[in-house]
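Hi R.,

Here's the chain you asked about this morning:
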Amino acid sequence: MNEFSILCRVLGSLYNRQPQDQVLVPLFTLIRDGKLREQWPLEQDDHLKRLESSCDTEALATDYNALFVGPECKVSPYASHWEGGPQEADVRAFLTSRGMPVGDAATDHFGQLLLAASWLEDQSAEDELAAQVALFDEYLLPWCGPFLGKVEAHAITPFYRTLAIISREALQAMRDELAELEAESGEE
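And the predicted structure, written out as tokens:
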């Protein structure tokens, strides 16, 4: 798994799952122990240190639920709820056309879109670059700025405020990497 995939998988999991989910226990252990910082491919040490010091699962669960869960949530994690965001059916059709298995869960969830980016990267299909660019440009970037801004503004815990900042910077770095790859492939 390469750096792009790792970034998408870690960030996608943190947005897609409740903090007390048993699947996240190893990830939160890595964060708390400073081990994620050692392996993180971007220069975000100060942000990661803030995550390390704010990993109280109970407080995070309360904040996560207030931010992202239910009709009264402060920040909808679904693209279709945002101006410029794609409709869920369009995201589902795109991912299905790329061969990604999709279940019953909404595919336009911010965390799911990041996990889909990881999946596309890991599949290494011949047209993988075009698929990743499309995912970023059509399904993720048009609405993620306002979404992450609201997360940062409404989060109670430093963890989710910092996660929004890390996510914004990581998405920009990943899109820049895709642009470089596009330029290189255009030169061949």
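Residues 3 and 41 are 6 Å apart (CA to CA).

Let me know if you need anything else.
M.
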